[in-house]
Each structure stands twice: as C-alpha cells, then as structure tokens.
Design goal:
- This protein is α/β, with parallel strands linked by helices and 285 residues long.
- It has 9 helices and 9 strands.
- It has a 6-stranded mixed beta sheet with strand order 3-2-1-4-5-6.
- It is globular and about 55 Å long.
- The N and C termini lie far apart (35 Å).
Length: 285
C-alpha cells in the first residue's frame, strides 16, 4: 500500500468526452498533464463530434457519474476540480452532491452551453441545475460572452442582477463587469467573463469574491482553430490552483498557456481545429 507523500498534485475533470480530442475530457487531460498535474476524469456525457460539428450526445446515467466521483475521491483525492459540460440536470445534481459530500476544494466551473461549432450542448433545465447545484461549490465560474448573457438573463429573472438588464449582446468591458456581478448574484464566488469574441486585444474580466476587479489583456492570436479554448483555459486554471497559485496568478498562467497553444496551431481538421496542448513540452525539447 502506498502511504508516502504524493510527489505530484492532482486534478479531476468532470466533463463530456470529445471524440475528436480537441475539447472536453481529452483537452482537459492534455492540459492538466502539460501543467505538471496528474489528471483524473469523471465523464458526464459522450459526444460524437469533430472539428466540423457535433452529431450526437449521449448522457451518462447520474448513478454512474456518482460511482465515478466516489471512485476518484476515495483514492487519489484531487487538489482541484474542473467541471465542464453537464448536459443533464440529474447529473448536475449528483455532481453538486458529491462535491459537497467530499468537501471538494478549488472547484472551477466552466458553464459549457454551446460548442465552438455552434451546436447546443446543454438544455435549459441543465443550465439551471448547474447554477443551483454547482455555482455555490465553485471558487471560480468561467463563462464566455454568450454564456454570460444567458446567466445574466437568469439573474434578472431571479432579481439578483443588481438592477441591470441584460443587453441583446455583451459588447463592452463595462457590460462584461455587469454580467460578472449578475452571475455573482447567482451564488458564484469569483467570476471570469471571457471576452475572446470582442474586437481588438483579448480582454477578460475577473471579478473577485471581495468585489475586486482585475482586467486581463493579451494579444489576439489570428487563427480559426479555436476548438476547445474554454475547456483548455478552465482546466489550466484548475491545474494552477492545484499547484498552489492564488486565483489571479492561476488565471494569468492559464491564459499564457492558452495563448501558446493557439500560437502553435497544429492545423488539423476541416473545420475549427484543435489547439496544440503540448506546445510547451515541444518548446522545452
């Protein structure tokens, strides 16, 4: 029996599987290992997809998701958790119950709703369940602009948006911050609104649990191959938290890694291709 001190930090990704390998569980595992963290997984759904789109989704039964969670936490307890695609409300409830049962720490929730190709990956019921079951467990929620708008609408409906109504689209830094505050009203501790679809340099807004605001700017990488960017960023943040970085430093390091993965575009696929998750390892070699 191994009773020695672990020589490597670990993280678990709770997400859907992507058969093309560019997003979901596959992207998360590649990212975590590239960060120097041991990766574990709990699969919430199987998807048939490639760089051109998603053709089918098969949800994993909630009871089996629970079995996977129990198996992970009973043995190699993760130092951080990333939650991605949850397309079934029952699965969201099981995940929330498990995270609370085990007192999971450093939980990053990426509220995946739509694939890069535009295919819907979550139902309205599952989105509400993610909000109600998972936001309260998370140290960080990481919506993109489209996801932030949906969550802002929910906050408005529940009267926790701070009086600001959601616009037809989020297009300015001020609106990103308003969205972050509305999402915080839904129970999220800290919120990272990703502005990758804005024009100009890439800008993300990080709203901290104490109300502090950090603007994170980076140059925009010109590429059409952006499949799995959200999955990659959130799993990199979770990995950096597992390694002991504070939230701001973890987000900065994760953004640097994502930028490198975009810059070292492997040019694969006929549609929106994957990132190069191994770029840092290749640079070292």
């Amino acid at each position: 029996m191994n009773q020695g001190k672990a020589l490597i930090k670990s993280a678990v990704t709770i997400a859907g599987s992507d058969s093309s390998g560019g997003a979901g569980i596959q992207a998360d595992i590649k990212t975590m290992m590239a960060q120097g963290v041991y990766a574990q997984s709990v699969i919430t759904a199987l998807t048939a997809q490639n760089t051109q789109g998603v053709t089918d989704v098969l949800d994993v039964a909630p009871d089996f998701v629970r079995e996977q969670l129990d198996a992970v936490f009973a043995d190699i307890r993760p130092d951080a958790v990333k939650v991605g695609m949850v397309s079934d409300a029952g699965v969201a409830r099981v995940i929330g119950q498990g995270l609370r049962k085990y007192g999971a720490e450093r939980v990053v929730v990426d509220p995946v709703m739509v694939a890069t190709s535009g295919a819907a990956l979550s139902s309205d019921a599952s989105v509400l369940a993610v909000v109600d079951e998972l936001f309260g467990c998370a140290c960080l929620v990481t919506p993109n602009l489209a996801e932030a708008r949906v969550l802002w609408d929910i906050a408005c409906e529940r009267g926790v948006s701070g009086g600001h109504r959601c616009p037809s689209e989020i297009s300015t830094p001020a609106q990103m911050l308003q969205a972050a505050r509305a999402i915080q009203g839904l129970g999220a501790s800290s919120v990272l609104v990703k502005g990758g679809h804005l024009t100009g340099d890439a800008l993300d807004i990080l709203l901290m649990s104490d109300g502090g605001v950090v603007e994170l700017r980076s140059w925009r990488v010109e590429t059409n191959n952006t499949h799995g960017t959200g999955c990659t960023l959130s799993s990199a943040i979770a990995s950096q938290l597992a390694l002991g970085r504070d939230l701001v430093d973890a987000v900065r390091a994760a953004k640097d890694y994502l930028t490198g993965a975009l810059e070292h575009d492997p040019c694969l696929g006929k549609g929106s291709g994957p990132l190069n998750h191994a770029w840092a390892l290749q640079v070292r070699i």
